[in-house]
Amino acid sequence: MNSPAYLWAPPPVYSLPVRGETARMPINRLFFVGRNYHAHAVEMGRPVDKAIERPFYFTKAPSTLVESGSQVAYPPETSDYHYEMELVLAIGASGFRVDPPDAHRLVYGYACGLDMTRRDLQLVARDKGRPWDLGKDFEQSSVVSEIVPMPETVLERGALALTVNGQPRQKSDLQKLIWNVREIICDLSLFYHLQPGDLIFTGTPEGVGPVVAGDRIAGHVEGVGEIALTIGSMTF
Known about the structure:
Number of strands: 18
Distance between the termini: 44 Å
Structural class: mainly beta
Radius of gyration: 17 Å
Largest sheet: 8 strands, mixed
Helix content: 10-25%
Order of helices and strands: EEEHEEEEEEEHHEEEEHEEEE
């Protein structure tokens, strides 16, 4: 059977390295949990009451992926470019309408992540009731470390921290997630058929802030690993 002809080359398969493996993980979709630490929700002026609210999500294209250790250009059309340090959950099995006792079966492993954000554009969109795409879904905005295999392991605690140029900026613990890993898997699977290669950024703690060209970001999640990023100049 002949392969189909295309007008131009189709997009590449986006992937990430896996610790201890020569094969890489092909990435399917990128999901992000918004406002999943109380202190950050307050910091953003939108406190969360878990008793009456559910998690909410946004997505980014896999083409926004950048590997840890890279240098990225300062993005266009913003003057308020922020870091957000997060635990990233890597899905390794299919699941739909997953029951809480079965959530662990979807876990392949974890990584460290940076949800880079054009904060000024995000806040304008938020306050006008518009989608966040221009503030969130842009080139080189999803930074991820190597995937650490932890099959069927649900992380419930672990320190998370970020520095900029060696100065502490974010520090928290996974115990402070409003919706924990198990709850996120179950809730998101009510809306999507989760698939191997899906990544879920589980939310950022308080301390988000701006970076400029030349800044060096470093972060870690206890028991998972480290992440690094350098901010370059704006490209024209």
